[in-house]
Amino acid sequence: MYFSGNVAFSSLPVFLPTILNEMGFSKVNAQGLTAPPFFLSFLTVIATCYIADRTQQRGITIAILTAIGGIGYVILATTKSVGARYFGVFLAAAGIFPAIGNVLPWVTNNQGSDTRRGTGIVILNLIGQCGPLLGTRLYPTSEGPLYVKGQSVCAGFMFLFCLLSLLLRTILAWENKKLDRKYGTLAQQRETGGSKRELGENYGPKFRYVL
């Protein structure tokens, strides 16, 4: 998921002024017009991370965001209208940046110890940071002004991101049911006063995966 997100995450900030310039805006105006989509994404990051924390539903949050971002890239790949393409930029920015902001804590939320959290972040970055190697090469000058291939590849990775987040959520929900069968639900544990952490486990009876 992080690799897929980074393909789009690394391409949009780098090439957005070029994309806007190719729409017919001057270089100065193109630079200025990058601000509103990025400001929207900033607000969306804060709002969606807060909502995901409160509801403990990062998978659904990420799926919605990546679907929105994917639709934005589809618009950029398939339309020639300046207004529609600029709208697509807003959707793409509002999808990819908050999705990255939610997938990072999803990794740390679901590790049962500091050692596992540290290892998880290392593995996440070893794989995920290869995404920019592809993303920064998707918009060669020869494919302007529409950059159909680059936009299409980013759309594909965004929808892959969406599918993977739903798949992971399904697996984690299944794992939570196994924990409920083994230890009892959290509600049942509260009624009985809980149980002690079993020796050799990093998680324990009260641990449940964040979905």
CATH superfamily: MFS general substrate transporter like domains
How many DSSP-defined strands? 0
What is the number of domains? 1
Q: Classify the beta-strand content into a percent band.
A: under 5%
| Average pLDDT for all residues | 87
Low-confidence residue ranges: none
Mind summarizing the main beta sheet? none
Helix content: over 70%
Principal-axis shape equals: elongated
Structure annotation, total helices:
9
Task: Describe the 3D structure.
With 211 residues, the chain is mainly alpha-helical. The protein has a single domain (2-169), classed as MFS general substrate transporter like domains (Growth Hormone, Chain: A), CATH 1.20.1250. Helix content is 76%, strand content 0%. The protein has nine helices and no strands. The protein has helices at 2-22, 27-33, 35-55, 58-78, 82-109, 114-128, 131-135, 148-183, 186-192. Helix 5 (82-109) runs antiparallel to helix 6. The radius of gyration is 20 Å and the shape is elongated.
Structure, briefly:
The protein is built from 9 helices and no strands.
Describe the SSE topology.
Blueprint: H1 2-22, H2 27-33, H3 35-55, H4 58-78, H5 82-109, H6 114-128, H7 131-135, H8 148-183, H9 186-192
Helix pairs in contact: 1-2, 1-5, 1-6, 1-8, 3-5, 4-5, 4-8, 5-6
